[in-house]
Amino acid sequence: MEDIFSNSQRAEILTQALPYIKRYNGKIVVVKYGGNAMINQQLKEQVMEDIVLLRLIGVKIVLVHGGGPEINELMERLGKKAEFVDGLRVTDKETVDIVQMVLAGKVNKTLVNMLEMNGGKAVGLSGMDGRLIEAKIKNEKLGYVGEITNINIKPVTDLLEKEYIPVISTLGCDKEGNTYNINGDTAAAFIAGSLEAERLIMMTDIAGVLKDKDDPSTLIPEISIEEAASLYESGIISGGMIPKVDCCIEAIHRGVKNVVIMDGRVPHSILMELLTNEGAGTMVTR
């Protein structure tokens, strides 16, 4: 492909990013990466490159991931039907074992390996390591779906201090030794809150909050917690976007400066959000 940028244009782009590099240097940014945003292999490579780049310019990145499509795929291969209630996976004992295998095993280690291949230093954790995510049963009907009771953040801060990228799969545990499947967005909100992160980035498969759900040009670039309440009432925030925005508000109440919901399928959307004037997606602010 012909190079469309001259060297002087490249230099200009870098100098324009400088104020943003200064702003985020030494700050903690939590990235929630999961679901359908993870399906395309080429995009996944780009996201890992972007995360390594941000770490190299001094941003303390924490990657929290899900893996729903991979869990569904393995369940199908094992002849087990996935069942959902209000968007949450019904998780019996056998299913929680599958979730643990896929999230803490396959997906977590694949992402760690990809970061390392791109020159990053990464360590994989599950919410069970160092009792990072303690949980209890959320609802008997859902089985081993966990409600978070406590976050022990020290394993994450220890890794950040040593300049590693912590890669966290969202499993929880209790004192009886049970394992729980934890909603990835909720886990990211709690972890970002415990870290008092500068920003939480929720990578999803839609552009953000849209006035008209079928028209990406109606993206709302910024909403405050107060404005969110009226958007719920008017039905602009509806369906699957409700739990996403709920998690954004939860994160802000827990001490995160601001949260962005954005389309993880757009190449380099993290860099656009953090290092340009334009930003990407919808920012939820206090």
Give the oligomer, counting copies of the same chain as homo and different chains as hetero: single chain
Could you tell me how far the N terminus lies from the C terminus, measured between alpha carbons in angstroms?
44 Å
Beta-strand fraction estimate:
15-25%
Structural class: alpha/beta
- Helix % is 40-55%
Q: In one word, what is the shape?
A: globular
Q: What is the N-to-C succession of helices and strands?
A: HEHEHEEHEEEHEEEHEEHHEHE
Individual helix count:
9
Characterize the largest beta sheet: strand count, sense, and whether it forms a barrel: 8 strands, mixed
Write structural notes for this entry.
The protein is an alpha/beta fold and 286 residues long. Helices cover 41% and strands 22% of the residues. The strands form four sheets. It has an eight-stranded mixed sheet with strand order 5-8-2-1-11-13-14-12, with helices on both faces. Strands 3-4 form a two-stranded antiparallel ribbon. A hairpin with a 5-residue loop joins β9 (171-173) and β10.
